Amino acid sequence: MLQTRPELRVVAEAGDGLQAVQKAKELKPDLIMLDIGLPSLNGLETANRIRFFAPDAVIIFLTANCDKDMEQAALKTGARGYVLKTNAGSELLTAIAGILGGDDFVSSGIAGNSGEADDT
Predict the structure, then answer these.
(1) 66 is a domain residue
(2) Which of these, 6, 52, 54, 100, could form a disulfide with 24 (CB 3.0-4.6 Å)?
(3) Which domain holds residue 22?
(4) How far apart are CA 20 and CA 113, in angstroms?
């Protein structure tokens, strides 16, 4: 899906949280997509560590976890987006474009959200 957008280029993939932190430290990417349920280091802790090594990277969570509390915890790490895997086909590219443009994004599948993060 990302390859359909010429302005987006995948520079690395990681199999677990520790590897994601290492790749972020080495490559300093503009955008990092994480899942909540990563092996060896969960997505929340991974995001917190990435913030230290690549503070300018924009983080978006792409996950199956639709729990409102988990979404809020993810955004408290400094992530700018939270997209449900079930909605990725219709929301991921829109979310990425908005986030890179300075907006926040929360998947419409999270109870109480219409697609943009609230100001809480």
Answers:
(1) yes
(2) 54
(3) 2-106
(4) 28
CATH number for the domain that contains residue 8: 3.40.50.2300
In angstroms, the Cα distances linking 88 to 42, 81, 119 are: 21, 12, 23
Residue 112's pLDDT is what? 60
Q: How many residues does the chain have?
A: 120
Q: What is the pTM of this model?
A: 0.87
**Segments of the chain with pLDDT less than 70:** 111-120
CA-nearest of 18, 49, 13 to 33 is 13
What is the end-to-end Cα distance of the chain in Å, rounded? Answer: 31
State how many domains the chain has: 1
Structure tokens at 10: 């995948």
